[in-house]
Records
---
Amino acid sequence: MDWGEDGLYDLASQYGWSPAYEGTNVVELFRGDARVTLEPGGVIEYSSLNPGAGPAIVYAPFYLPKTHPKFARDNSEFIEEVLGYLPRLNPAFRRDWVLATHCHRYDFAQTISPPGFYAMLPPMRTPIEGLFMADTSYYYPEDRSIAESARVGRILAAEALATG
C-alpha cells in the first residue's frame, strides 16, 4: 500500500507507526499511546503574538477542496473535532476555557495571480489624506502568513510615518 508520493506509508511503517482511516483517507498515525493527527491542517495559537493581551485565540485550519466529503459537514462538527484535539496538545485543557467558537469557509483559499500581478496593485497610500490600505494581495509573491502580515504592516507604518 502506498499513501502518496511522499511515501507516508513507508516512512510511518519504518518507525512502527500505523494508520487510522476516515473512509479511504489516512487521518492519523498511531504507535502505542502516541498519536500524530493529519487533521486539522494545524492548530495555531495567536496569543504569543501579543503576550499579556488576554485570552488566547486558537485557529485550526482545515484546508479542504469543496469536493471533499468533510466540506459538507455542519460547522458544529468541525468545532467539536477541534475541541477534541486540544486535550492532546494540552492535557490540562478544559472546555470551560472556551469563550466563543466560529467556523468559516472560503470557497477559494488562494488567488491565482497573473504575471506582473504586483505591478497591478494600487499604491497602499490612497488619494485620501491619511488613508492607507492593503490586504493579503500585497503578500504576493509569498503566501498568506503571519510573517507576511508583519512585513506589510511595517510597509504601511513606514508609509504613514513618511507623511509626517
---
Amino acid sequence: MKKITKITKITLTVLLAVTMLLTVVACGNSSGSNGGRDGGGNSDSPSTESDSTSAPQSGSTPTPQSNNRFSPVKDFEFILDESTNEVRIIKYVGSESEVHIPDKIEDNPVTLIGDSAFKGTSVISIIIPDNVITIGTSAFENTALMNMILGNTVITIENKAFQGTQLTNVTIPDSVTTLGMYAFSDTPLTNVMLGSNVAVIDGYAFSNTQLTDISIPDSATTIGEGAFSFTLLTSITIPDSVTTIGVQAFYNAPITYASIGNGVTTLPREMFGSHLGNDVLSEIILGNGITEIPDSVFYNFSALTKVTFGNSVKTIGDGAFNHTSSLTEITLPDGLETIGRSAFTLSSLKSIVIPDSVKTIEQVAFSGNYSLTDVTLGKGLTSIEPGVFSYTGLTSIEIPDNITLISHGAFTETPLTFINLGAGVTQIGAGAFYGSQFPDDIRDIISALNSAALR
C-alpha cells in the first residue's frame, strides 16, 4: 500500500511538470502569433520597423516616400511668427539624408523654408509638405539633393533655391507662380513639368541644365534673361501669354525650331545666339505682336531656311538677316514699311517681292545675294538706295513709275541685260549700273540721264 502511494506521488509529480511545460510552450506560441498581427505580418516572417524604413542599397537613388512619418522636430531650427501663428524653418540640423519636413510644428503650420536652410547638409531626398508657401533663397543650393516632392501649396521658389543640386526630374505643382533667378541652374535636370499657373520664369532659372524639352504653360508671362541658356533644348514654342523675353533667353541651346507667340512685341538681343551667330536654328515663326525685327538679331544664322513673319512687322532692322547663307526664300509681310541697311546682305535669296507698303529700302539691303534673279518692286518706293541690289544675279528688272531716283551703285556688278525704266525716273547715280551687260539701245537711254551711270 505504501509502495502504491509512493508510485502515485511520483506519477502526479511528472504529470504536473509536463503540464507546466506545455503551458509555457503554448504561451510562447500565443505571444509570437500576436506579434505577427501587430506588426502586420505572420509569426514566420515578423515585420519590424527596420524593414519598413530600410535605407536604400548602395548605388541606388533613394525615392522620397509620401507618408506621414515626418522627420523629428528636433532636427530643425525654427521660429514662430506670432502675428500669423506660422512656423518658418531656419535651418536643418539633423543628420539624415532623407527628410520629410513636418507640415506643422507645435500645431502651427510650416509655411516657409528659410534662406540657406539646407545648404551644406547631406540631404539627398526631401518631401516638402502642403502648408509650405515659399522656398527661400539658396534653400538647397549646392546640396547632393537628388529627389524631391513639392507640396501643393508652394507659390514661390526663390533665387538659387535648388541651384547646383543633383536633381534630374522635377514636377512643379500648379500652385507655383514664380521661379526665381537661377532656381534650378547648374543641375543635371533632364525633365521638368511646369505647373499650369507658372507666370514668371526668372533669369537663368534653368540655365546650364540637360533639358531637351520644355512645355511652357499658357499662364507664363515672363521668360527672363538667359532662362534656358546652355540647355539641350531642340525646339521651343512660346505661348501667346508671354509678353516679355529677356536677352539671351535661349542662348547657346541647339534649338532648330522656334515659334514666338502673339504676346511678344520685341525680340531680345542674342535670343538664340551670340553676336557671332548661330548654326542650328533652321525655322522660326514670329507672332503677330512683333512690330520690329531688331538690328542683327539673326546675323550669321547659317542654318536658317524658313522665316514666317507676323502681320504687324513694320521694320526689319539693319543687318537683321545678314549672312543667312541658307535662306533661299522669304515672304515679306504686307504692312512692312522699312527694310534696313544690309538687312539681307550675303543671304541666298533667289527671289523677293517688295510689298507696296514698303517705303524705304536702305543701302546694300540685298547686296551679295548672288543667287537673286527675280525682284518685284512695290508701288510704295520712290527711290532705290545705294548698293541695294549690287552683286546679285539679276539679269532683268522692272522699275515702276513711282520710283524717281536710282542711286549710285544701286545695281553695281549685276549681269543685267534688260531694264524697263518707269516714266517717273529722273535721276540715276554714278555707277548705278556698273558691270551690266545692256545692249546699246538701253545703254543710250541710261546715258541720256547720266553718262556716268554705266561706269
---
Amino acid sequence: MDVKIAADQLWDSINSSSLPYEHAEYGKDHLRWMILEIKFGAVEGEKAHRWLGWIQGCVCVGGGATLEEMKQINKNSKVTRVTDPINLVGTSTTKEKPTNECTCCGGPGYLKDSGCPLHGGQYE
C-alpha cells in the first residue's frame, strides 16, 4: 500500500464527518495537516502508517466513512510501476535515459496518461 495515496483519499471523508474543525488531536484541521505531512514526506515509514491509522479511526468515529470503506482505500492504494520504457511518460526518441517525473511533485515511474496519483498532475 502506498500510504501517500491512501492519505490523499481521505479528504472527502474528513469533510463529511461530524468531527469538530478545531481540536488538537482529532479536529478536521489537524487531520488535514497530518495528511499533508504524509503526502509531502515530512512523515514517512511506520510513523506515516500509524498516522494514517489514526486519521482513518477518527474519520470512522466521526461518521465520515465506515471501516469497510477505509479497508477499500488501503486495498486500492497501490501504484503500478512499469519497466517497459514504451509505457513511460517522457520517453524520447533519442537514446537518452527516459524521464518521467510529475511536474507537481517529481514522482517517478507511473503509467503513461495516469497523471500524478497524489495531485493529478501530468508527467513530462
---
Amino acid sequence: MTAKVWPLALVGVLIGAGLAAAADVRGVLTRYDADKKELVIDARGPGVRGTSWTFRLASDAAITLGQEMGTTADLVPGKHVRVSYTERDGQRIATTVHVFAVLKTLQKLLDGLQPPAPQPAPVPAAPPVEQLPATPRPPGPVGKAPGLVEGQVGVLRRVAYTEREIILASAAADGKESYVVLAVPVDARVMRDGKETAFDTLKEGERATVRIESRNGKACATAIAVGQGGLPPQTRSAVPAAPNCFAEARRALAIADQVLEQLQGRLAPDR
C-alpha cells in the first residue's frame, strides 16, 4: 500500500511546485525603485509583522488610490498599502497595489452626503428687440443620456467582495489599458453563461460585459455578464430609487476598518 501512495504524493509535489496561488499582504511602503519596477514594504499583521517583503511590479499591474485609479507616482514611502501578488520563478509579482487614502475617501463620502447648495432664482430675460429665426438642430442621431453605458467590455482587474467594487480594464486608443473603478450596488444583477449568479463568484482576470449607470453622482455597475450570454434586460422604474442605506453602511464600515488598521500599525509595538 505504501509503495503505491508514495509515487502519487511525489507527482502531487512536482505539480504543486509550478503553481502559485494569488495572495494579499498589507504593510507600509518603505521603498519604490521606478527603474527596476521594484517595491519593498514593511509587513503588518499576524505572523508577518516587522518582516520586509520585496515585489516586482507587473507590467499590467493596477494601482488604486482610495476609491480612484492611481499611478506609480502614488507609491510614496510611508504610505499604507495592500499588495495582491503571485509567485513566479521564485519572485513575488505584484498584480494590484492599493494605496490607502482614508482622509480623502472620508472627505468624498461626506461631500456626497451634504445637500446640494441652493441655486439662485433665474433672472427673467429681457424681451428681444428683434425676433430672430431659431437656429436649426444639427442632423444626426440622438446619443444616450449621460451616465449610462450599455455593454462596456473589459477585463476584471480587481474584484473586492467586501467593498463591493470592481476595476474594469479596457483597451485604449493608444493600445494601453484604461481603467474604471465601479461600485457594485446590492441590487446589481450578475450573469454567468446566461444564468444569474452571486457577485462573489466573479474572479479577477475574467472578461466581462458591464452596464454602467450613474447613481448619486457615482459610477455603478448595475449588471455584469461573464461567459456566454449577454446582459439581462434593463428595467427602469418611474420613481427614482432611494439611496441604499445598507451599501452606504458597508462602505462606512470598510473605511472604519482601514482607519483602525492604520492606527493599529502606528500604535501597536512590533513583535
